[in-house]
Amino acid sequence: MLLSPFNLTERIMIPLVEEPKEHFEEFRMYEKCYFECGSKTKFWHWRTNQPICKKCAKTHKVSEVEKCTPKYKAPTKAEYMKSL
Ligand SMILES: [Zn+2]
Questions:
Q1: How far does the centroid of ligand 1 lie from the alpha carbon of residue 60, in Å?
Q2: pLDDT the model gives residue 7
Q3: How far does the centroid of ligand 1 lie from the alpha carbon of residue 1, in Å?
Q4: CA 18, 35, 11 angle in degrees (round to 5)?
Q5: Which residues contact 33 (CB under 8 A, 6 or more apart)?
Q6: DSSP result, 37-53
Q7: Going along the chain, which residue ranges are E strands?
Q8: According to the model, what pLDDT value does residue 10 have?
Q9: What is the pLDDT of residues 9-65, one digit of tens each?
Q10: Rounded to the nearest whole angstrom, what is the distance from the C-alpha of residue 56 to the centroid of ligand 1?
Q11: Domain definitions of the chain by residue range
């Protein structure tokens, strides 16, 4: 069965990047999701520098996420990936 682009159940509202494996191996822990779900996650919303799990990314909007610090300047995705 082919997936119709109009019938995606995996619709993500908040774009996430996966924390590189090397990063995880260095710190040995995942961050706690920004939302109240309590999950540990290796996914980040790079524009706010907040950890967000995949489940919450589907049910929340970017506008609900505050930046980690008000002055945090959102990098482009490419810049963010380079800084890791
Ligand atoms: Zn969550």
A1: 9
A2: 47
A3: 30
A4: 55
A5: 39, 40, 41, 51, 52, 53, 56
A6: T--EESEEETTTTEE--
A7: 17-18, 31-32, 40-41, 43-45, 50-51
A8: 59
A9: 557 899 999 987 776 666 667 899 999 999 999 999 989 999 999 999 999 999 999
A10: 4
A11: 17-83
Q: How remote is the CA of residue 42 from the centroid of ligand 1, in Å?
A: 11
d(C-alpha 13, C-alpha 23), whole Å: 25
Compute, in angstroms, the gap from residue 33 CA to the centroid of ligand 1.
5
Q: How far is the CA of 68 from the centre of ligand 1 (A)?
A: 16
Which tokens in the block code for residue 19? 């924390």
> Ligand 1 mean position to 66 CA, how many Å?
15
Query: What spacing in Å lies between the alpha carbon of 51 and ligand 1's midpoint?
Result: 9
Determine the distance separating the centroid of ligand 1 and the alpha carbon of 49, expressed in angstroms: 15
Residue 79 has what DSSP assignment?
Answer: H
